[in-house]
Amino acid sequence: MSLTRRQFLYTTTALSLGAASSASDRSGTVLVVLQLAGGNDGLNTVVPYEDDHCGRARTTLRLTGSQVHKIGSSLGLHPEMNGFARLFAEGRLAILQGVGYPKMLRDHNTGMRAWQTASLSAQEQTGWIGRIADRDPESIPAAYVGTIAPPFSIHAREAIVPQLHSAADWAFAGNPPEPSAAQRPDALASFAARTTADAFAKVRNVSEALRRPAVIQYPQLPLAQSLQSVAQLIRADLGIRIFLVEQGGVSPGEFDNHANQAVNHAVSLRELSASVTAFCDDIEKDRLSDRVLLMTYSEFGRTLTENGRHGTGHGAAAPVFLAGGAIRPGLIGNHPSLTDLDADAPKPHTDFRSLYAAVLDDWLSIPADPILGGHFEKVSILGTRSEPPRARIAAND
Amino acid sequence: MDPKTAWEPYRPTAQRPWTPALAAHLLRRATFGFNRAQLDQAISSGPQQTVDRLFAAPPSLPSFNAQIDAFAAPLLTSEESGSQECAQLWLYRIMNTPFPLQEKATLFWHDYFAIAGRSALMENHLRLLRRNALGRFDALLLDLSRDPATILGCGFADALFGRYTGGSATPANASRAFTGYGVLRNRFHYQPEDHLSNISGDDAVKSALAQPNTAPYVVTRLYRWLISETTPPAGALIKPLADAFARDFDIGRTVATILRSNLFFSPEAIRQRLKSPLEFALNLTSAFQTTVAPASLYPQLANLGQRLAAPPSREGWAGGRAWLNAFTVMRRANLAHTILAKVENYPDRRQILELLLQSDSSPQSDGAELALALAASPEFQLA
Fold first, then answer.
1. Distance of residue A86 Cα from the nearest chain B Cα, in angstroms
2. A288 CA to chain B: closest CA distance, Å?
3. For chain A, what are the domain ranges?
4. Which one of A218, A361, B172, B295 has the minimum C-beta count within 10 Å?
5. Which residues of A30-59 are buried (b: 16+ CB within 10 A; e: fewer)?
6. CATH number of A28-170+208-331
């Protein structure tokens, strides 16, 4: 009897896993989508610390070169992002700059809807992950892990996308015996029997994954807990290709810092950095790093100018983080201009659907155009280890 | 099956006897669940008398409705932007109604028209569906054309000539037939000077009803609800029912014809549907005469893909196999576990089997274990 992919993952060496994630075989790749709710201030996350326009426009929020983690190109990561600075130095983090879409919407609901539906039409009835699930409603290609109501991204016409508080949620209450998986004479009954057998098998997989000793101590933070569950569910090898998690989702969202931003934003970025770093280290220790790619986004960035309450307003372009062993590390694209602004906010130069197209086509091997309802030129996000270089959207300086 | 005999009333014979399994099949399809006494009554009454009883509005209905309407009064002025309050009251009504077929038909039409909206509007919308659920389809469409939730929830003209009647194109003069129809303070409001068509909205409804595909389309949807999700019916099988339906649009008579028929009590229909999450839950609560709080049931049903008063798309719920995947099977078993945890006294093993499956199953040691085992079995997923 041949090994299941899960057994393979437990017993294999790093060398063979590297082979499994070559460009020719992406059936086992996983995408983790992390939604930052409220509109993250990109300018104080990836900080252009030498840019006078930024320094002058911000008084209490200003971060200097001596405070940030320098990452080249006169940019630095927020001082609380120690983990991200290490991931960046180790070649496990990429920063895609200036992401957004034309005429960015600046209210939370419609702005977030655009990212969640991958559409600029308010009429779109499904989320982009939901549309992936609808390709085969009987399968489970995606799941949401979190304790708050899930983002609209997983909304599907037909498929029912799992929503879990934690990996431990993927278990039977009580102890129902496993029904016979014998073939039934009737097609519908056979389908129910097959699905039931699959349900019992997946519960066993999760239970085994949860029994494995932890290799990484995750911080006691909500995002870290969700990501730990995601790591456990990835190890359980349920065939789930996309996990959705969220930081700070109670409307309007914790990144929405109209006042006293300095302290609040630092706390949020610390949680983001520490949680994602723990996840990446966990995945790396398990030699799964080349199979897993994490991507962040927020509905919009923020305005350049600090307001009278030491906060910022709803903006436009913002950076996206990509983490994992297979990404093209470093800065991708230029920092948006701080002199050519749109109502006090940096303008995007890279459409987020170009990013989605890349993660769908190049990373998950899921044809992007039908999911995105159109063709978007892909951003090159994967490293040379696993992908031949593609035309870059904008040269790094 | 021959279209002529298919729709004739089923008369039990020695070859095709009336059995507990057939009685349970009828109750599964026409109600949300049944207890021992209801099953026994159906077994002893036979198929035709049981259908008579399912259609008879019980004397307690007016006082029940008055009681629920009193509960619902605050909903009509609710500020809620979603529909959770309305959905939970509906769950209460479904679990307690003395007229379950009417609620089941109401849910069918909710799936069919797939309107979502605020609680304040959805409460009236559901009353409209309930009022017409077993009445006439023409009256139902006319009411919907003046229904605030429908007006705000969909482009009614296109839906009327499209997914509501199985058509594909809206006639030019009909697309503006509902101009001037609007909503003012949660109520229907007609502004005659805004009406920009030479025909009225009522004329447009009549014209949609007269399309040749309307009756076969509605009857095919009723077929999928009551007979089978697995095999689409042949046109010849639908035709006799569709011809009759086209004459008077009588929903109740059509539903009754289907429930009484040879086809309904044949292998073409039996266990050829999957239980919706709501049916799954209420089959259990009914069988063991226990209850579950609407506020607790609502999120669990939503997690299983059935958020009442908020269908996932304009096409309603996909239903059928889309209800089941490896995750929802596990979550259904957990919902069963929650419901069964409140059962104090289980009947004996044979009784449990007959209530839940009407067939043999592997032996288990006690009632609670057997009930959970059966609830987690593939066969129990079927309706």
1. 37
2. 24
3. 28-170+208-331
4. B172
5. bbbbbbbbbbbbbbbbbbbbebeebeebbe
6. 3.40.720
